[in-house]
């Protein structure tokens, strides 16, 4: 199998993220995380920080900037790490230490070392679609996100909310509920039936 990635959806308000490097990529990744979960717990360790990151830290009490060189102890209590310094050897060291501490790591300049990739994300209320190109072209992932963001109607979130209410009201055993939900949502995959 060429593409071995298995997408999952992290609840970042209950995990602790360490970002090493406060430059362009540290900023990009921190922004991506915060756009999905404003309550993400993020610590950023770096020798210096872009002013945009300082603004973010002022705005989000859950984002902490720590001005110092990376050291192994920074990994303590962390669940996910993003190594985003401009020093490839240091990024490798962060990877080694993270592996030793059993913390999942993304090394921004070395896809082969990544335990996970960040996806390009379509957001429509409760609906989220994460796109990956298996690391082949993040730009194509970004473009596809823009296409889907436009193509999916904003009203889809209302459908989700209504289905959620119906889901709670349905009676019967699990199989019966699945059958009823499939019947109600049939129209979403076979709209031509409407015309008949
Ligand atoms: C999706 C997105 C999520 C995010 O970051 O939030 C993301 N990169 C985004 C943008 C982007 N990144 C780059 C460009 C420049 C043009 C280009 O190269 O295409 C652009 C486009 C732009 O900025 O416009 C350069 C780049 N990226 C990586 C490398 C290293 C390498 O490949 O060796 C280099 C070369 C560095 C260099 O040359 O020095 C690596 C990764 N980037 C990934 C994710 C992971 C794979 C995702 C997948 O499977 O598709 C992976 C493997 C690891 C990771 O970072 O998690 C985000 C879109 C956000 C959005 O939706 O708007
Ligand atoms: N994954 C992606 O999406 C992607 C996209 C573009 C570039 N990259 C790669 O990401 C890397 C970082 O790029 P950038 O533009 O953010 O670089 P940058 O120069 O803007 O920032 C690097 C940061 O690392 C910090 N740093 C350096 N040594 C440190 C140390 N010992 N301890 C703690 N912090 C330290 C610096 O203080 C600086 O804030 C590059 O190697 C680049 O190739 C990845």
Automatic annotation (TrEMBL):
Catalysed transformations (reactions): precorrin-2 + NAD(+) = sirohydrochlorin + NADH + 2 H(+)
InterPro entries listed in its UniProt record: Met8-like, NAD(P)-bd_dom_sf, Sirohaem_synthase_central, Sirohaem_synthase_N
Source domain of life: Bacteria
Pathway(s) per entry: Porphyrin-containing compound metabolism; siroheme biosynthesis; sirohydrochlorin from precorrin-2: step 1/1
BP-aspect Gene Ontology terms: siroheme biosynthetic process
Sorted UniProt keywords: NAD, Oxidoreductase, Porphyrin biosynthesis
Enzyme Commission number(s): 1.3.1.76
GO molecular function, one term: precorrin-2 dehydrogenase activity
Record-annotated Siroheme synthase central domain positions: 125-146
Alphabetical list of NCBIfam families matching this protein: cysG_Nterm
Protein name, UniProt field: precorrin-2 dehydrogenase
Species this chain originates from: Chitinophaga eiseniae
């Amino acid at each position: 199998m060429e593409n071995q990635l298995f997408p999952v959806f992290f609840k970042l308000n209950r995990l602790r993220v360490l970002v090493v490097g406060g430059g362009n990529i540290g900023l990009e990744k921190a922004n991506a995380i915060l756009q999905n979960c404003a309550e993400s717990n993020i610590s950023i360790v770096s020798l210096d920080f872009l002013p945009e990151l300082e603004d973010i830290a002022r705005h989000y009490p859950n984002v902490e900037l720590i001005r110092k060189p990376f050291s192994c102890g920074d990994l303590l209590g962390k669940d996910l790490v993003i190594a985003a310094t401009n020093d490839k050897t240091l990024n490798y060291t962060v990877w080694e230490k993270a592996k030793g501490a059993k913390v999942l790591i993304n090394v921004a300049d070395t896809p082969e070392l990544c335990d996970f990739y960040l996806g390009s994300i379509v957001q429509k209320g409760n609906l989220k679609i994460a796109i990956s190109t298996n690391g082949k072209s993040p730009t194509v992932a970004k473009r596809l996100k823009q296409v889907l963001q436009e193509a999916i109607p904003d009203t889809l979130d209302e459908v989700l909310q209504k289905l959620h209410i119906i889901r709670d009201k349905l009676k019967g055993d699990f199989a019966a509920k699945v059958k009823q939900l499939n019947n109600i949502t049939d129209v979403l995959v076979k709209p031509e039936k409407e015309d008949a």
